[in-house]
Write a structure and sequence with these properties.
The complex is a heterotrimer of chains A (about 180), B (about 280) and C (about 375). With about 280 residues, chain B is an alpha/beta fold. Chain B contains 13 helices and eight strands. With about 375 residues, chain C is α/β, with parallel strands linked by helices. In chain C, strands 2, 3, 4, 5, 6, 7, 8 and 14 form an eight-stranded mixed beta sheet that branches. In chain C, strands 11-13-12-15-16 form a five-stranded mixed beta sheet, sandwiched between helices. Chain C is globular, with a radius of gyration of 21 Å.
Chain lengths: ~180, ~280, ~375
Amino acid sequence: MRQEFRLSGTGGQGLILAGIILAEAALLDGKLAIQSQSYGPEARGGASKSEVIISDEAIHFPKVTKPGVLLAMSQDACDKYSHDLDKDSVLITDSLFVSKVPDFGGKVYELPITHSAREGLGKILFANIIALGALVKLTGVVSAESLEKAVLNRVPKGTEDKNRKALEIGMSLIK
Amino acid sequence: MNMEEMINKYFRPGRLPHIWCPGCGNGVVTGCVVKAIAKLDLPKDDVAVISGIGCSSRASGYLDFNTVHSAHGRAIPFATGVKLADPKLNVIVLTGDGDATAIGGNHFIHACRRNIDLTVVVYNNSIYGMTGGQYSPMTPTGSKATTAPYGMIEPDFNLTELARAAGATFVARATTFHAQMLSDLIVKGIQHKGFSLIEAVSACPISFGRQNKMGGPAEMMMWQRDHAVPIAAWDKLPEEKKEGKFPIGVLYEVEGRKEYTEAYDELIAMAQGGK
Amino acid sequence: MSRVLLLQGNQAVVEGAIAAGVKFFAGYPITPSTEVAESLAEKLPQVGGKFIQMEDEIASMGAVIGASLTGKKVMTATSGPGFSLKQELIGYACAAEIPLVIVNVQRVGPSTGQPTSPSQGDLMQARWGTHGDHWLIALTPASVPECFELTLRAYALSEKYRVPVILLMDEVIGHMREKIELPDDYSEFPQAERKQPDCKPEDFKAYATDESLVPAMPAFGSGYRWHVTGLVHDETGFPKGTPAATLAAANRQRAKIENNLDDIVQVENYRMEDAEFAVVAFGGGARTAYETVDMARKEGLKVGLVRPVTIWPFAEAQMKELAGKVKGILVHELNCGQYVHEVERAVNGKVPVSLYAKYDNEPATPAQLLEEVKKAMAAL
């Protein structure tokens, strides 16, 4: 089974890292994964996307053509990257930044991702990890254990507890 | 060592005579380079001579060391690769004024800045000789060249000042008239740990002298004698008397600034210690 | 022991370089190849190697030639505009027969083009970018593990034939992250060795060869003193401008490659056993093609993929053979059509050759390519 994810937002929100973590969690589960990205010349700001494809079988074409899940953490990204959603797709938005949600016929989860990062952890930079927690809870695409391991492999030393908490917060956003 | 012994030891058999015109200063400069190597008694296997393209850069082919006749302007990058990859080699760059300061100008200033242990001898004959007399960045303003038939309107580089400003730690100049001094300066340049520039003012009677009515080879040597001022005298010379003249000798020397390949070895120790 | 990693193609090149024994890198920052430089800046000193960021692309090329002369395995990495700047010295490396590897992660051109978008527009530049007749090798990986393998192979070929090898990547492969399994210990990988002279230093002629036509190459400082030049030279290594010397130099440099095409040229066939129609694609374009072939097969169409892994020298024999096997060929490349002309030449009208050129800065989707395959098959 092939699952395609598109994580999008503004440069600097950590979505490329989130995509890498998701793909590495899939490898830890023994699956195959490909992550790719597109970004503008600016290191901060501008719409950016990180795409992840996870499958049990060989993945040849590395780009997302049928997104199962679109995570949109900015209005720009939501507008730019939602064109190919269909009724089977799921859209997760950061409700702090996305007010206009496209009508594509599928399910939409408007989650207070950045808001929870600020309230729960005091720093908005955990928003990407919170988003991953929510995405994994919703889809079950990787195991919670592998996700946590993949997160801890990638984050700076000393921030492990906060990142674990971020995952918990993210998962709790999906009721 | 007399001249014949020196030629037998350091010049490749069968490669002479050289291609340079009668009266050209390149032979004198090349002789000074060889005398310096002989004086230091450097093993031939430990010397790499890298040249660019142009009249002077033909010198590398005549010399019995590890030699590279590189591409136009690129002697310094080639030499940087040789030196950084194998710092035990004494790396000497032979280049011309056009090669080093026009097409290779960017490489020149960055090698100065890195303070990599190269000895760069710039044969400055004020002209592109091999292509027949076009102006270089070191053609004096007002001089004639085939591409400056009305006279050179661009200001020329003061290469020694450029090198000093860019970070070179040994900067010297002599002329082919002052051949002993030139050879002594090359010795010092080779001994110096860091980037050394030796500008060798040299005559091109055919492509520069004729266009500028400077007379023959002997007259051009006299011109060098009359316009070069030893640095000690130069420093005492009033500004108005410096016009048209140039200083020779060790113009700038600084010890203790970190040499690039040594700095890199420290970096390796740090990278390996930090594992 | 081995590690399972999620690596970018560019990072896999770096791992391949370390495994191959690279000890010198000179480069200049340029998207989308910069990760190669960044990663080697960190890793080379850890293995006692040297990294230098030069003042420009030309200088980087000069520095790797210089370092190669000291016997080290060397690399530089760039993208289109930088590749153009390196061309003069690539010619020098061909003429003086200097082993080295140049990574070119292609992006959209010409000029600044689109730095972060994929293209395969440098195909002809890789073959004919420098002036004059010359012979070199270019390899095109289509996956992250293959980036590692072909980097090792690039050194094997470069050292064996004393020729520059271009690792011709594209942004799709350079930047995507994919699973790769690597051993913890790289010492198991064979280290390519440069042929050394078996004569005494005083008898050494720098470009004299045996039947391999590849001259021995002692390192600077080894006691064999020789002269390196970009001028046409004879077997002594010194310039010689006679018609006979000119001819001999060109013929030997060509023959040392062309006599060994069986060793050099690799082509992968995918589902070609019973194929009636072939897609020819490589690098990032091949990623689309694998999936297209699978989709076509599900629809009962007998389509296969022929993927040149060695992009230069051209897979002449393989393409001629292919023309005798299938009813039609579709070349898919991420440019306006470069490789297709070579395929057409080799096929020589035996079967129809069509082109699906994709040059809008995005790789073709498998569905798009399938559409083109169906059109081409319908036209047979």
